[in-house]
Amino acid sequence: MQQADVLASILIKKKITVTTAESATAGMIASLLADTPGMSDCMKEAFVTYSEEAKKNRLGVKQETLDKYTVYSHEVASEMALGAKKITGADLALSVTGVAGPGGGSSSCPVGTCYIGAAYKDTVITRKYIFSGDRATVRRKAARMALTLGLTMILDNKEN
To answer: CA–CA separation, 60 vs 116, rounded Å?
Structure first.
């Protein structure tokens, strides 16, 4: 996957550390980054937090946030990224929460809905996507978008 190669090479070159907090992608982002030799110098940790309990216990997502916005939201993606960044001390944290399918969707959150977060330096951003395709396709598309979001944050940062 090209996004992973490009992001990994920049992380290695600039000595930027990374962590991931993944639900719908189940570790795919970390796995793609780890395919690049030298990533062991940059990869802090990878969290696979499928359940709400794991998001709360491992990443510090607040119950109030889950109750108010649901697990599939900008707010949860943001708290996942910020929590992973804080716990690990990584420079960059990428997060994904969503519904990969084939079940689990609703009228307000159809199958393919993914919220992707990235926290870098003092900035956190989230994006909502609705991907088409089967479960594997949705997961791959979400992983690619998370890598692209992380790459964009680093390239747009004036301090690099």
So the answer is: 17
Claim: this prediction has a pTM higher than 0.90: yes
User: Distance between CA atoms of 72 and 53, rounded to whole angstroms?
Assistant: 14
* Max intra-chain CA distance, the chain: 44
Q: End-to-end distance of the chain based on CA atoms, in angstroms?
A: 24
Hey, is 6 helix, strand or coil?
helix
Q: Give the integer Cα–Cα distance in Å for 78 and 67.
A: 15
From residue 114, how far is each of 5, 23, 75, 82, 146 by CA, in Å? 22, 10, 12, 17, 10
3-state SS class at 38: coil
- Best CA proximity match to 58, nearest among 87, 96, 31: 87
Does residue 1 register a pLDDT over 60? no
pLDDT > 70: percent of the chain: 99
pLDDT digits (tens, 9 = 90+) for 56-65: 999 999 999 9
